[in-house]
Amino acid sequence: MTSNPAATLSALLKDASIEDHEEVLKAANAVLRTSRTNFDALHTRVVALLKLDRFDDALRALDDGGDKLAERCILEKAYALYKTGKLEEAEKLAHKEGKRGLKHVAAQVAYRAEKFEEAAKIYKELSSQDAPIEGEENDLRINISAVEAQLEWQGSGDKVEQKRKKPAREDLEAFETSYNAACCCIARGDLAAGNVLLKRARDLCEALDELNDEEKRAEVLPIMVQQSYVFTKLGKIEEAEALERMINIADVPEPPTRVIAQNNSLATSPNENPFLTQRLFDSVPTLSHGERLFKHQASILERNRYTIDLQSLKYSGVAYSTASTIAKVPSPTISPYINPLSVLNAAAAAKCETGKASLKQILPLLEQRPNDVGLILVIIQLYILTNNPGQAVSLLESFFKRLEESTSSTDQDVRFAPGLVALAVSLYRASGRKAHIKSELGKAASYWRRKEKPSLSLFRAAGTSLLESSNPEDLSVAGKIFSSLKAQDPNDRTAIAGFVASYATTDLSKVSSDLEKLTPVSRLIIGIDAEALEEAGIPTLPTSPSQAASKKRQADANEKEKEKPVKQRKIRKSKMPKDFEEGKKMDPERWLPLRDRSTYRPKGKKGKKKANDLTQGGVVKDEGESLELAGGAGTVKVEKATGGGGKPKNKKKGKK
Question: pTM for this structure?
Answer without folding.
Answer: 0.69
